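Researcher: Next entry in the queue.
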Amino acid sequence: MKMKIFLILAFSFFILSKTALAADYKIDIVDYPTDIMIESGWMQYFNVVVKNSGDSSLTNVSIYFDGEFPEWFESQIKQKDMLEPDDNVSFLVKISIPYNLESEAYPFILNVKSKEARSSESLDVRIFKTKTDMMLYQIQKIEVEADAIEKNATKLENLGKDITTITNVLNEIKYSLNEAKSYVNINEFDKATRLIKSVEILIKEATFDLTVAPPKESEEPTTQFQPEIIVYIAIPLVIIVIFYIIIRRRKKEPLMRPVDKIKGIVLEKGSTQSNELTEIENSKNLLEEEFKENLISKESYVELKEKYEKRILELKGEADRNKKV
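Model: Structure for this entry, 325 residues:
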């Protein structure tokens, strides 16, 4: 009985260990063309990259194609004998298309297998009767991608993102595609091909820019220089200056000076001689200043100056006589 139980346990452990080991085997196709475009009667090469994604080694790794015409494909490497975990292997594949095929798309299944695991992916082969048809299709396909990027950029702008960089790249894409079309129409296929390749790089750049679009900067009102403002400011300033000059001149032209006040001093008899002499001399000095500033006429200046000088002589004479007495 014990022996029977032991055998059952041993067999169960063996089955479980086999299952666990099988779960460690995994193989993936990590790089391949999903859409192959080729002209009827031509051939081209492409790479298929396979990775051991499991924890155990894989043996006898190879690829093959399922579809209507699998004979179109030929792998330059027939088999990879050993593929370690996390390692890759690249299979160079040649596709050859017969002549006189009409433009059409053919679906295929790309398979990778090893002794321990297998995997598969789908791809399309698009055949074009002429090179012109093929290149115009390439351009059209890129235009669809550019339109999708533009729509996503508009959504980001509505969310407050700055899409200036994306818009600039899209404008460059549109310009280059139009130029590529013009080259295709005149059978300048090499120039058109170079432009298409450059546009494919721009498409990747614009796609990346969508993921890192920054928020819009807050718009601050900008004050533009307006020449008419100078006129609006200058006219009031000129008026103020003129008004100030008029007021200042009026302040310097007192109602009683110099004519009336000086006449009062000359005719006044009640003041003492010394005070009167001082006032007349001050008035004479003031008269000189006002005449220099054109605040009184020459006639008034001459008349008053004579009276000042005459009165000064009289007062000085009276002072001398008083001293002698």
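Model: Strands lie at 27-31, 35-39, 43-52, 58-67, 73-75, 80-83, 88-96, 104-113, 118-128.
Researcher: Noted, moving on.
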